[in-house]
Amino acid sequence: MAQINFILWLQSFHSPLLDAFFTAVNLTAEDNFITALAVILFWCVDPLVGLRFLLPLLFSGYLNAFLKDLFHTPRPTAGQVLFMAIPPDGSYAFPSGHTQNAAVLWSYLAGHYRKKALVVAAAMMILLVGLSRMYRGAHWPVDVVGGMAIGVGLVWLALTAYRIWDRRSLSLPLWEQLALGVAVPLTLFAVYPRTSMQTGAALGMVTGFTLERRYVGFPVRVPLWKQALKVLIGLAVLFGLQMGLSSLFPAGHVFRFTRYALIGLWGTLGAPFVFRAIFGSERKGK
């Protein structure tokens, strides 16, 4: 009863301005925004940071789907809340996927860069996304709190693992990197095929990153106009692939897995190859 009372209290502030605000906040936890941010990090800041940013997000999506199917928690219904911003899509409620996405996204950036202003901004964004899910009538408070806890916990584990790896200067031969980049996503996909988007993207990104760092070496730090051109070209092709391959490939988990593996390969290998062809090699510039 306390949960529905909190939602009703939050929705009592309903206004067009608040609707627009929470709609915008909600977009920052959706796949297109996260994908764009991840590849911009990869193309323009540091490929390793971009990869390490996206891997916890992909695993978070995998775990979120598994937990939703495990707990089968129903979402609030239209009769329980004052309004629903979007109609129910049939998925379960716990944990909140948008909140979990926000928790992973912002806590990773805050934990990696360790800037006070970013930590404050991250906490605010995670809270706002959680509030947006309840304000829009999509989730219970427990779904939001669960998404926050799971997301922050996953990032803590990821950052701890990355720091141990870096501190010990661990490395693997090329063939072992490629074998892991293929075997782990394929195994996770076989265990839970509904996560074909996350596991396919992980396979494409890890194998593409490994091959790019060994054979391509595209220019990462370039003048601003070149960065803008990289983002424009890269995202145009990436979103074009998303739309084009969905029309070309038949329905089914295996084809969806393959589709997202190709998209991941474009982001970490295809686009960098194009950038090198246009702007030259990073290694030659050193």
Describe the structure.
The structure is a single chain. With 286 residues, the chain is an all-alpha fold. It folds into two domains: 1-170, no CATH class; 172-286, no CATH class. The chain is built from eleven helices and no strands. Helix 3 crosses helix 10 and helix 10 packs antiparallel against helix 11. The chain is globular, with a radius of gyration of 20 Å. The model has no long low-confidence stretch (mean pLDDT 91).
Beta-strand content estimate = under 5%
Q: Number of helical segments?
A: 11
Helix and strand composition category:
mainly alpha
The number of E-state strands comes to: 0
Radius of gyration: 20 Å
Ends apart, CA distance between termini: 63 Å
Instruction: Report on the biggest sheet.
Output: none
Question: What is the 3D form?
Answer: globular
Question: Would you identify the regions where 5 or more consecutive residues have pLDDT less than 50?
Answer: none
Mean pLDDT: 91
Order of helices and strands: HHHHHHHHHHH
Count structural domains.
2
- The level of helicity is over 70%
